[in-house]
């Protein structure tokens, strides 16, 4: 059974991790991914934390980017109005219930997010006294009413009460004969899945009836009490880390254990082979045999007890790492450990989300394909029907021509009898009588009377007097409808005319195939446009520190950073300017300084400084007026204080010493587009690209300049 929601232990682990990661940070924004799924974005400086909440299902940190609606819901807008930019002061679990309380602010102005992870779930926004300001859905029970301006019943939360042996023993004793261990034991606090794992870890079957264990209640009570006490002690600690579990049948579990045991035995054998032999005489002669026994014992131990650790692509369950000793090892195929519980939960839920997105997006392709397939299927059916109709009419016309005398005789017989005034019923009885006697050959070929359509059905065959090939063959008769108001040749001509009409229609249908296929494709594309394609889940990329500024990478691999405004210029100076960097500025109005980050590469090449100068001047008023030059200096020359010790204002800086002015430069700017690719693709692309050493490039440039200067000196006749 795949795990679909958090248990109490899971909620405890998720709250512990969110408390460590998000408490003290401000709520930057709230997004509604669906009517029941919300994303809370916390941040402090450049650190961002994303918390995902689904009513009644889950609460955990996430590092997966999900598609957000263009227009937020009214519920989300009201949440933003009340608590956006507020600091998260605390996060707690109400008692042992799966109810989470997030407090924003302190004192009388505090607000609370109350999240319910049980049943249908709910989402409440309350004030400091837990008076409900907003809620996802109204609810009412016998003594509690959840609605706006009502008080959320925090006092109704269940408090933790440890299970005692007497309580477990009494529950087992009071169970009925058809009750299972799962239904009679008070393990609801742990959840059904964890409860089953706990029983299985004790060697008990959760579905076993009382008839099977009625005589062993004391031992079962001791075992269950012991595992409950261990889990209760685990709940009192901070849960960190997570595991992903892949479940399987006993045969799959056995194969996984055998494969793991074989791998361990192979590694031990390889280690024994590579280990150097000792020259000492104290080594016994049967050392190799003992090593073989050790490897066999290790392999047997691995096969019988250890759970293979491997990457789990399709997990069935996720748990906090501390729960691993209490899981049913008899059903576990593999376990993957993750640094946090949130990562394990996020991967498990993201897998099901991605499957739904893939199924939804496939509707767009299926809409086009279904229209095409339906068209070609219907078109082929029409062609087959027309071909069959053409062949049928041709055959019926030929049969009438081959049996023209019998057809004319049958038509004349029926017309003569009807001319006497005999009724249709009497005529039918007379024909059946002659057929039973077998005395009238013309009456024997009459199959049915369809006088209401002025037709009769005849049984005709390809029997020809001059055809010796079919003389002794089993001839098959065919029912042919003929008009008694027409002669045999006229009826044959009628069928041949229908054949010609069907053949002409068939030719027109085949000729119009391409046009009809294009029309069906356009119809499918029109239907596909109505299907809104959802974006696939992607990992949230943490922006680099310089991405909030204007930045680019020079031709020599240096990062150049410039502020958008004077406030960002001060931020660059205070936080990111370090020794070895180059400070680039200009004298034009609106010019913002830039920093050429050195990064320990030695001397910064002049082309990198000139490119930074172009950025400074191009983003000033000189872009629209006469161009000016920029200047540069070392980072140690820049200060926020004047020589007299006065502090300079926003965006103002003092340079100690000389400024190095650069020649007037051509103002040119370009736009670069960065494409994101997978790590595997990036490694593959980088494997064939030689890395550039900035020092080598700088040395080559100096040598080139020296050669050019020497050549110019020689040409001018200088020394």
- Strand segment tally: 27
User: Which structural category fits the helices and strands?
Assistant: alpha+beta
Number of helix segments? Answer: 19
Measured by DSSP, the beta-strand proportion falls in 15-25%
Write up this protein.
By secondary structure, the chain is of the alpha+beta class. It contains 19 helices and 27 strands. Helix 3 crosses helix 7 and helix 10 runs antiparallel to helix 14.
Sequence-ordered SSE layout with sheet pairings:
Layout: H1 8-22, E1 26-34, E2 37-44, E3 47-54, E4 58-61, E5 64-65, H2 74-83, E6 88-93, E7 99-104, E8 111-116, E9 122-126, E10 132-135, E11 139-140, E12 145-146, H3 165-174, H4 181-184, H5 192-201, H6 210-213, H7 217-235, E13 242-247, H8 250-274, H9 287-304, E14 317-320, E15 332-338, H10 341-402, H11 404-419, H12 424-437, H13 441-444, E16 446-450, E17 455-460, E18 478-483, H14 488-511, H15 513-529, E19 538-539, E20 550-553, E21 559-562, H16 566-576, E22 582-586, E23 594-596, H17 606-618, E24 630-634, E25 638-639, E26 654-655, E27 660-661, H18 679-687, H19 694-716
Antiparallel strand pairs: 1-2, 2-3, 3-4, 5-19, 6-7, 7-8, 8-9, 9-10, 11-12, 13-14, 13-15, 16-17, 17-18, 20-21, 21-23, 22-23, 22-24, 24-27, 25-26
């Amino acid at each position: 059974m795949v795990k679909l929601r958090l248990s109490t232990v899971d909620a405890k682990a998720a709250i512990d991790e969110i408390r460590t990661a998000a408490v003290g940070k401000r709520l930057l924004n709230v997004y509604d991914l669906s009517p029941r799924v919300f994303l809370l974005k916390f941040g402090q400086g450049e650190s961002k934390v994303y918390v995902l909440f689904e009513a009644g299902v889950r609460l955990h940190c996430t590092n997966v980017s999900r598609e957000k609606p263009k227009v937020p819901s009214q519920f989300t807008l009201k949440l933003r109005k009340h608590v956006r930019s507020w600091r998260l002061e605390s996060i707690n679990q109400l008692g042992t219930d799966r109810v989470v309380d997030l407090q924003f602010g302190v004192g009388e102005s505090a607000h609370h997010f109350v999240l319910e992870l049980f049943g249908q779930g709910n989402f409440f926004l309350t004030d400091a006294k837990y008076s409900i300001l907003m809620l996802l859905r109204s609810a009412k029970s016998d003594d509690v009413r959840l609605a706006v301006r009502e008080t959320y019943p925090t006092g109704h939360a269940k408090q933790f009460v440890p299970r005692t042996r007497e309580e477990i023993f009494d529950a087992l004793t009071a169970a009925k004969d058809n009750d299972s261990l799962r239904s009679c034991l008070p393990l609801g606090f742990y959840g059904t899945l964890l409860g089953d794992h706990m029983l299985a870890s004790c060697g008990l079957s959760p579905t076993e009836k009382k008839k099977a264990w009625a005589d062993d209640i004391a031992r079962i009570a001791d075992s269950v009490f012991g595992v409950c006490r261990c889990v209760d002690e685990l709940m009192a600690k901070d849960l960190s880390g997570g595991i992903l579990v892949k479940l399987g049948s006993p045969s799959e579990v056995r194969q996984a254990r055998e494969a793991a045991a074989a791998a361990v035995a192979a590694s031990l054998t390889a280690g024994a082979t590579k280990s150097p032999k000792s020259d000492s005489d104290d080594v016994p002669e049967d050392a190799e045999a003992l090593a073989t026994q050790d490897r066999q014992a290790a392999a047997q131990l691995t096969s019988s007890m250890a759970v293979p650790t491997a990457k789990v692509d399709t997990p069935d369950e996720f748990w906090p790492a501390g729960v691993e000793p209490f899981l049913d090892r008899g059903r576990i195929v593999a376990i993957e450990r993750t640094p946090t519980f949130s990562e394990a939960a996020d991967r498990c839920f993201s897998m099901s989300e991605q499957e739904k997105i893939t199924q939804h997006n496939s509707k767009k392709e299926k809409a086009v394909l279904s229209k095409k397939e339906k068209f070609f299927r219907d078109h082929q059916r029409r062609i087959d029907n027309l071909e069959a109709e053409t062949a049928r009419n041709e055959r019926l016309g030929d049969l009438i021509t081959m049996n023209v005398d019998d057809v004319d005789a049958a038509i004349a017989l029926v017309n003569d009898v009807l001319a006497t005034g005999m009724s249709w019923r009497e005529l039918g009885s007379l024909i059946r009588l002659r057929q039973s006697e077998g005395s009238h050959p013309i009456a024997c070929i009459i199959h049915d009377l369809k006088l209401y359509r002025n037709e009769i059905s005849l049984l005709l065959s390809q029997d020809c007097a001059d055809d010796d090939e079919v003389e002794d063959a089993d001839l098959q008769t065919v029912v042919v409808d003929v008009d008694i108001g027409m002669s045999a040749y006229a009826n044959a001509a009628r069928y041949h005319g229908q054949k010609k009409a069907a053949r002409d229609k068939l030719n027109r249908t085949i000729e119009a195939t391409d046009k009809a296929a294009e029309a069906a494709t356009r119809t499918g594309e029109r239907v596909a446009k109505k299907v809104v394609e959802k974006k696939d889940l992607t990992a949230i990329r943490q922006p680099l520190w310089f991405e909030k500024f204007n930045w680019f990478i020079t031709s020599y691999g240096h990062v150049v950073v410039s502020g958008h405004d004077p406030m960002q210029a001060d931020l660059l100076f205070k936080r990111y300017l370090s020794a070895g960097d180059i400070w680039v500025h200009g004298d034009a109005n609106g010019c913002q300084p830039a920093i050429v980050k050195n990064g320990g590469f030695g001397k910064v090449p002049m082309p990198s400084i000139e490119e930074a100068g172009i950025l400074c001047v191009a983003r000033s008023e000189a872009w629209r007026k006469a161009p000016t030059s920029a200047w540069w200096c070392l980072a140690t020359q820049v200060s926020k204080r004047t020589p007299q010790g006065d502090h300079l204002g926003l965006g103002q800086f003092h340079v100690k010493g000389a400024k190095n002015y650069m020649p007037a430069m051509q103002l040119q700017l370009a736009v670069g587009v960065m494409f994101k690719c997978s790590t595997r693709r990036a490694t593959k692309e980088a494997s064939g690209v030689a890395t550039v050493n900035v020092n080598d490039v700088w040395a080559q440039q100096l040598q080139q300049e020296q050669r050019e200067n020497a050549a110019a000196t020689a040409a001018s006749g200088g020394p």
